[in-house]
């Protein structure tokens, strides 16, 4: 899998949502691989400190734009003429989607359609110039119709979504597949210049996430203040994984698509241009109580049950099956649940105690992850 990462050296890579948690980690990793990154996102919020801590803005082409503005987005993408696109920009919080369902659908569905439409407008230009572009549209494990079943969801399972966030991401998946089949399909005498896939990851953890209503950021704020962690739903089970795990999947998938385009391999291009799950080992499907207790093994503290009987609905049980990613692109998770939590808590402790800069801590985790790839 590590061989895929050399594909980004010297390439123009567009990342939407690069100011966010996952976007900042992805951008930092791409820069370390020698990519020429353009980022498109709204200005970072007060919760998106990691972007500034990493000094990313000085190392990339930073475009402050709203993906809901199709004209503005299209101009920025046309200026970049990317070799790779990672679309991460989103409204990514379930609870916020209840407060602002319209904004959630506009960002997650219309924003995705705007990205796809901007790429569609470049088709003739890319064909004339003999250029190719690999695209990964990032959605979520919550795009599935959640029936609270023990078995993990596979890419062929029905899409759905109880809350506006989950439903908006299912809509984004449907729109992506529609555009892929209608405008970027394989077949015929001329192979497409664009290859488009979608990616569905589990619940990511890692240093530098300060978003509201997420268990790790909430826990860290409490621990740093010497207060008990308020746990809203101790029994909720999620597929926890370190942020570097799905990012490695996105990059591996994008590299596979690019190589298929480059080699004019229609069979493999058709296979890779589809939906993929990137989840952890089944042993990482743990409830929130387990997660918090492992956190407390690395940062002394306590927690209390703060369940809210009137809280908005959130899924109680969710897991992913990722054997398709393993079979098609050779991807597999590297870090165990315990390692992912330990890496995450140690990151925050060093940041809190000012024993390491965020930039150094991110770099060290990427180096460690790459080294573990060699051993896996």
What are the defining features of this structure?
alpha/beta; single chain; 14 helices; seven-stranded parallel sheet; 376 residues; 45% helix; 12 strands; three-stranded mixed sheet; Rossmann fold
Strand content: 5-15%
In which order are the strands of the major sheet placed? Answer: 3-2-1-4-5-6-10
CATH topology value: Rossmann fold
CATH architecture descriptor name: 3-Layer(aba) Sandwich
Count of individual helical segments: 14
Descriptive account of the structure:
The protein has 376 residues and is α/β, with parallel strands linked by helices. The chain has one domain: NAD(P)-binding Rossmann-like Domain (Rossmann fold), CATH 3.40.50. The protein is 45% helix and 15% strand. It has helices at residues 21-32, 49-53, 70-80, 94-99, 101-120, 123-129, 164-183, 215-224, 244-262, 266-272, 288-296, 323-329, 337-353, 358-375; strands at residues 12-16, 36-41, 61-64, 84-87, 133-138, 194-201, 203-205, 229-231, 237-242, 275-278, 285-287, 303-305. The strands form three sheets. A seven-stranded parallel beta sheet has the order 3-2-1-4-5-6-10, with helices on both faces. Strand 1, helix 1 (21-32) and strand 2 form a beta-alpha-beta unit. Helix 9 packs antiparallel against helix 10 and helix 13 (337-353) packs antiparallel against helix 14 (358-375). The longest helix is centred in the N-terminal third of the chain and has 20 residues, at 101-120. The mean pLDDT is 92.
């Amino acid at each position: 899998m590590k061989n895929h990462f050399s594909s980004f050296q010297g390439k123009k890579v567009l990342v939407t949502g690069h100011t966010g948690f996952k976007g900042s980690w992805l951008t930092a990793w791409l820069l370390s691989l020698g990519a020429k990154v353009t980022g498109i996102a709204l200005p970072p919020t007060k919760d998106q400190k990691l972007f500034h801590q990493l000094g990313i803005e000085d190392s990339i082409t930073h475009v402050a734009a709203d993906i809901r503005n199709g004209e503005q987005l299209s101009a920025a993408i046309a200026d970049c003429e990317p070799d790779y696109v990672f679309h991460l920009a989103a409204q990514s919080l379930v609870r916020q989607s209840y407060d602002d369902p319209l904004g959630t659908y506009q960002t997650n569905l219309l924003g995705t359609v705007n990205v796809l439409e901007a790429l569609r407008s470049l088709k003739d230009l890319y064909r004339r110039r003999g250029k190719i572009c690999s695209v990964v549209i990032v959605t979520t494990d919550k795009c599935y119709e959640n029936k609270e079943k023990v078995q993990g969801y596979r890419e062929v399972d029905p899409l759905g979504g109880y809350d506006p966030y989950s439903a908006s991401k299912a809509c984004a998946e449907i729109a992506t597949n529609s555009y892929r089949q209608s405008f970027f399909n394989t077949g015929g005498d001329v192979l497409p210049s664009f290859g488009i896939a979608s990616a569905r990851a589990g619940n990511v953890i890692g240093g530098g996430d300060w978003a509201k209503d997420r268990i790790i950021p909430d826990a860290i704020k409490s621990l740093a203040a010497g207060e008990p962690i308020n746990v809203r739903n101790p029994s909720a089970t999620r597929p926890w994984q370190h942020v570097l795990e799905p990012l490695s999947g996105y990059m591996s998938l994008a590299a596979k698509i690019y190589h298929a385009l480059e080699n004019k391999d229609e069979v493999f291009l058709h296979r890779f241009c589809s939906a993929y799950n990137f989840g952890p080992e089944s042993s990482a499907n743990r409830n929130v109580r387990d997660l918090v207790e492992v956190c407390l093994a690395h940062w002394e503290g306590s927690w209390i049950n703060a369940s809210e009987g009137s809280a908005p609905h959130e899924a109680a049980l969710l897991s992913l099956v990722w054997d398709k990613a393993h079979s098609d692109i050779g991807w597999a998770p590297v870090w165990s649940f315990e390692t992912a939590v330990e890496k995450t808590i140690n990151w925050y402790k060093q940041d809190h105690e000012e024993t390491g800069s965020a930039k150094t801590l991110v770099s060290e985790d990427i180096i460690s992850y790459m080294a573990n790839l060699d051993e896996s």
